[in-house]
Design goal:
Largest sheet: 7 strands, mixed
CATH class of the largest domain: Mainly Alpha
Number of strands: 20
CATH topology of the largest domain: Transferase(Phosphotransferase), domain 1
CATH superfamily of the largest domain: Transferase(Phosphotransferase) domain 1
Distance between the termini: 103 Å
Number of helices: 13
Strand order of the largest sheet: 2-6-5-8-7-9-3
Bound molecules: adenine
Helix content: 25-40%
Length: 551
Amino acid sequence: MEPLRFCVLWWGAILVLLGAADAYILKIRRLCKFCDLRATSCAGKGSCKVECDITAICPDQQDVCVSIWRKQDDNVTFDTVCHNPAQTLYGLVLEGYNNSKCEMKERKGMGSEFFICSCSEDECNEHIFFNSSKDSPVVAVILVSLVPLLVMAVFVITSFYCYRVYRQRQASPRRKKGPPLDFSDGHAIMIDDEGSDISSTLANNLNHNTELLPIDLDVQVGKGRFAEVYKAKLKQGAAVGRDQGFETVAVKIFSYEEYASWKSEKEVFSDADLRHDNVLHFLTAEERKAQRQYWLITAYHPRGNLQEYLIHHVVSWHDLWVLGGSLARGVAHLHSDHTTCGHYKVPIAHRDIKSSNILVKSDLTCCLCDFGLALRLDNSLSVDELANSGQVGTARYMAPEVLESRINLENIESFKQADVYSMALVLWEVISRCNAIGEVKEYEPPFGNLREHPCVESMKDSVIRDRGRPEIPNSWINHTGIQMVCASIEECWDHDPEARLTAQCVAERFYDMEYLDKLSDGSDSEEKLPEDISVVDEKSGSTEVLPPTGW
Ligand code: ADE
């Protein structure tokens, strides 16, 4: 390169750099409105624009923009200046000068009404804002008087919340055994069901986690209209770095075609208020894309369903009292419009109560399962849902008004009354296998004279035309307790739905029979194990009946 051209380029570069530095220096010098003292019409409320048309480059690099509003007698003025915040102004230290907006603060003891603001953006002292307490002292007064109220409200709400959490913890089953639970991966973790206890972060919730629970399916334990039920092992996440512990669950598997059934059962189950000792404990719902299946994961109860239990066992009066009372409590909870904590819940009608839809827990209490036909009795009920709700369930257990499709759809109580009728048939089944009635025959379902799956028409003949009900032989009522239960049963299967007892009333009657239970010898149920009958689950050790807990 020629020396002359090099020199020109060199000096050019130096000049550009100097120019940039100059621009930089100029830039950090602030531009502020600078009119010193001027009269103003600004009333000292809300926001004002100062009446100053002089914008000055502040002399000092540290300077910020300042506005002062003063009122002495009727004389109102604005003072707009540049000022270095390191120094006092009228004996005052500037506050909030790093703000981009000029927000006025009142300063007392200045001999007049005196407001000052400072800020650090070009011409930011042109628009000034008075703080709200000056705007409206009334607002400040209201706010101050509201504070104790707010504090009290927060206190009351927090106490109520804590109380509810406490009550829920007390009401929910407590974990008795098994390895410490780990919720860190957000998966449902549960313990085995010898005590039918389950703890789960996902209880009565949907698994919004896209990760599926690690589960190994075991044997099939049930088959319904729309799905099959499997016993399964729930593996605790290996990620938590502990030995893989296995817990037992039940998995109800729906094919992709049965999406609607899965969805409706999932919707009923996912209501946290459904949770109750006598309602099957729901863990989570999953879509298993790879298998084109939908799953509902619940507690597993090795004793299986009540029908199987009654086929294989003769029960004592005490067992009957525990089974019947817990069944009535489960149905009452379903039907109730409030939880045990007393807050509102949506009442639910099961609509398919039968002994095969009731599981027997290890302590011989019952829990309701299979909510595939259940109906939430709330305002969300669509016209379609109501219109299709006339005749659902299992014909054998259908109330007369359901058999005739004459159920009063206008009144949600009608659905509960139909459930109570079905519950009465189940209570009859339990009594028919109770040794307190004398000679106990082989298990027979209600209306056992009819073929295996009677159709609606033959049920109508028995239940409506002949006004038939399962027989209550005289020998049954020699036992005071059985006599009382039979009296309730007869009220529950009354032809007139309105005349039927509520499930809550039946539960209370069972409760009132506790003294009878105390009088009884409490003899355990006898197990009947002919060669050709296999026990529901070997692991359950169902020959031994655990000490009953009942209520
Ligand atoms: N059959 C249907 N559901 C069941 C469950 N949760 N436990 C045991 N057996 C069942």
